[in-house]
Specification:
Elements lengths: L1 H31 L7 E13 L2 H4 L11 E12 L5 E11 L12 E8 L2 E12 L7 E10 L6
Antiparallel strand pairs: 1-2, 1-6, 2-5, 3-4, 3-6
């Protein structure tokens, strides 16, 4: 009688126990075998300034609406990567104001990107177009960048 009860219980709980065991095994393996994280890495930007574009880059510059003329500028500065790995596809964020403290690029803080930032400090350049009716000088504020420790698939 005890043997028949055991046999009956074994049949009854066999499938749920297998499911629980396999679930635990998959969970354990997902903790042990994980791909390396490609976390967002912050890049410090400093010595930010700008200069006019060379004539060959500035020729025919227009703003995004395509109807008004624009002035071409190149934002330059230093990018500091504090990690020991190259950072890829670093997006540059910042605010640009004209002489009257009006935003040059309204509702837009992402200004461009840097393809690769090696460990340490390196120079960067970013081309921008500013409507021709915006009074100079420009004020560059709150510049920062963030990228990935591994190349992003395209």
């Amino acid at each position: 009688m005890v043997r028949s009860n055991y046999s009956q219980l074994r049949k009854q709980y066999s499938l749920p126990l297998k499911v629980v065991f396999i679930s635990c095994l998959i969970t354990f393996l997902s903790w042990v075998i994980t791909p390396p994280a490609q976390a967002l890495t912050q890049i410090k930007l400093s010595d930010i300034s700008y200069k006019e574009c060379p004539p060959e880059l500035a020729q025919g510059a227009v703003i995004s609406s395509g109807s008004a003329s624009a002035n071409c500028f190149i934002v330059i500065g230093k990018a500091e990567n504090g990690t020991n790995k190259t950072v890829y596809d670093a997006d540059i964020f910042g605010r640009i104001y004209d002489a009257n403290n009006d935003s040059v690029m309204q509702n837009r803080t992402r200004l461009g990107s840097i393809a690769e930032v090696p460990p340490g400090t390196s120079d960067f350049e970013l081309r921008i177009s500013v409507p021709a009716n915006q009074p100079l000088p420009l004020k560059l504020k709150q510049f920062k960048a963030a990228g990935f420790s591994g190349q992003v698939r395209r």
